[in-house]
Amino acid sequence: MTTALVPFQFIGCVELRQALDHRARDERELLDRLEDVPPGSIFYHTHGYFLRHRPITTAYGNDFAAWVAVHVRDQVLAERLAVINPFEMANLEDLREELMSVVHDHLLRLSTVPRVEFGEVFHFQQSHIVEVPLGPAATTLQEFRTGLAEVDASAIYFHMVEARARLGRRSGDFAEWIRGGLGRPALADRIQRIDAYMTSLERVRARVLALVDAELEEAGA
Amino acid sequence: MITIDDYRRVAPPGAVDMLLRLAERVRERRLLHVSGGRFGGGSAEILHTLVPMMADLGVDAGWEITGGDPGFYTTATALRAALDGAERVLTDEALDHYVEMNRINAKKLSLDADLVLVHDVQPSTLIERRTGQSRWVWRCHFDCSRAQRRAWTFMRPWINQYDAAIFSLPRFGRRLGIPKYVIAPSIDPLSEKNRDLTSREVTTILRGLGLAQDRPILLQVAPFTAAEDPLGVINAYRLVKKHYNVRLVLAGTGDPDREGVEMLAELREAAQHDPDIAVLELPPDAHVQINALQRAATIVLQKSVHESFSLGAAEAMWKGKPVVGGFAGGLTQQIIYDVTGYTVHSVEGAAFRLRHLLNNPELIARMGAAGREHVRRSFLVTRHLTDYMALLIHLTR
């Protein structure tokens, strides 16, 4: 079995939330604030949704869609926001543009701006990620498999979401190491193609494990 | 004695290992909590758990408290109430005295630490005595978004001297010149209020309280104040009672002021005419009784109309109970609508959801299980401690 020269270190993460002085009471304010807030806030309310909602997957893919559905009670805009897949965007500015474009287009079709009547105002936040190295480092695919099965779910988020969207490692850390460290480009491609949108971190873990298991079985056969 | 390893059986998988790794990173740093006292609920209740846990993790953690004369306590209490939105008279003399007492406190206390977490109002002006490179953070446990103007005008310059503030919800804060972090409070799953009880223990405790378990129990545990809407709960129960033979238990502590006395009298009057309503005035340390009541309940209500971040819903969900709560304060964070319970806006809404649940018993079990998992991930003390250690790392790197 190939041994990587550079071992893979699993890194879990803690999300430290920070409230911003931006809020929205209606969909027009949502549009205005989307333009103003720092990119970290766009990240927090879209990609970060998957870290916060890991135990119970809810029906919305991001905080904006959830707020519009639950508090503004505008199901049409909620549906349109929910289908925006943050993982398909090249960067956070593209994601911001897409969100704004959807809200803007929706407002053009309305005579009055939907607003919160009995719900809560939307408070924009951002987060700081504190990295925490977890478990022993892996140097083989078997060790990687063992570590992945046991590691805290936040490590799945860090290596599959944070690394791609905020740290500029577009393939994700698992695929990058398996390709570069273990020389298994086909497996790396399959892991890179896993769709992390609208699923739980545990399901993503299970999919990566299934791919690795298949590879190990093939190598052993 | 409870150790950090005991939390492995209740916390999410990997949570304790995460704490151990975080502790390794902060081992050379000192974290000091400063609060207004060691007894009662709120910050003191959770610090009784957090500080020993930190020590067990090998983190250098301390806890100091401020004290003073009756005038100091009166002003601090009034200032806290005014910051929470209540109308209070705050004179310049009283506020000056409050600040002066904290100057005396500062001379007595050892405030050297890498991170000083100052809890709530009473010790807040200690910030003027900060020294060296230490970082100071104000931890606000209540909702100060609707603070009285005079109280906030006094408080804001003090808070702005801190390096950061922490609020339990984003909407609980106000505009400040410092970063505002968001950390939700938590429950200790191994405390007397939340630890597992056998069904025999539950039955014995309920018998001691004079309650039978022969019918479904609807329960609200909350102070007997208008903010918790116990009369609304009775009205919702009466609507439900037309269709279901249930009992209602209102358990809580009375408020010694006039409003509290009147409220308790009204509740007792209502209970006098209906043997299926029980009003239990419990002492502040009736933790195991509350635990047993929540475990015996079929559905728990938390029908507050004005809440800070009361953890009654989280406590009930930890015991596998669906919660019907008011659309207020931290309840909308604790209750995931249609997953762990329902948030409602009216008496009729509460009655409707109670009937809905009683009519669909399988929902009670499903929501109860979902609620317990939600609390396991989001509202246990292990998560709270993780957040504090992450803050220590973030602010002192």
Short summary of the structure?
The complex is a heterodimer of chains A (221) and B (397). Chain A has 221 residues and is α+β, with helices and mostly antiparallel strands.
Strand content of chain B: 5-15%
Q: What value does the average pLDDT of chain B take?
A: 93
Largest sheet of chain B: 6 strands, parallel
Net shape of chain B: globular
What's the β-strand tally of chain A?
2
Find the structural class of chain B using helix and strand composition: alpha/beta
Q: Could you explain how this protein is built, in words?
A:
The complex is a heterodimer of chains A (221) and B (397). Helices cover 52% and strands 15% of the residues of chain A. Chain A has 221 residues and is α+β, with helices and mostly antiparallel strands. Chain A has a two-stranded antiparallel sheet with strand order 1-2. The longest helix of chain A has 20 residues, at 201-220. Chain A starts with 7 loop residues before the first strand and ends with a helix. The model of chain A has no long low-confidence stretch (mean pLDDT 92). In chain B, helix 1 (15-26) runs parallel beside helix 14 (381-396). Chain B is globular. Chain B has helices at residues 15-26, 43-56, 70-83, 92-108, 149-159, 199-208, 230-241, 258-272, 287-296, 312-318, 331-334, 347-359, 361-378, 381-396, and strands at 30-35, 60-65, 115-119, 135-139, 164-167, 180-182, 217-221, 247-252, 277-281, 299-302, 323-326, 341-344. Chain B is of the alpha/beta class. A six-stranded parallel beta sheet of chain B has the order 2-1-3-4-5-6. In chain B, strands 9-8-7-10-11-12 form a six-stranded parallel beta sheet, with helices on both faces. Chain B is built from 14 helices and twelve strands. The interface between A and B is medium-sized, with 29 and 37 residues. Strand 1 of chain A pairs antiparallel with strand 6 (180-182) of chain B.
